Amino acid sequence: MERERRLAALIAALRGSVRVGPAELAARLGISERTVFRDIRSLIEAGLPIRYEDGYRLDLPVLLPPIHLTGDEAF
Fold it and tell me: Is 19 left (phi over 0), alpha (psi -120 to 50) or beta?
């Protein structure tokens, strides 16, 4: 699985559950727990509010900064 897709799937898995352990995430995504730890760290460094309390949890809402596009970029 490509890294970008894996990170998106990881975010979706964290949104869908209250708390998810690394072993469960690894099984869902077909990756190793070590990869889960590395990807979680990358997401936290990117600014996602992920916490660990008996499993990973994504603190919602996740707010993205506004995007300023020109007219050509918007289409």
Answer: beta
> To which residue do tokens 């727990």 refer?
33
pLDDT digits (tens, 9 = 90+) for 27-75: 999 999 999 999 999 999 998 999 998 899 988 765 556 778 888 877 6
The two three-digit tokens of residue 75, written as one number: 């289409």
Determine what percent of the chain falls in helix, strand and coil, rounding each to the nearest 5: 50, 10, 40
pTM for this structure?
0.74
- What number of CA atoms fall less than 13 Å from residue 35's CA on the CB side? 15
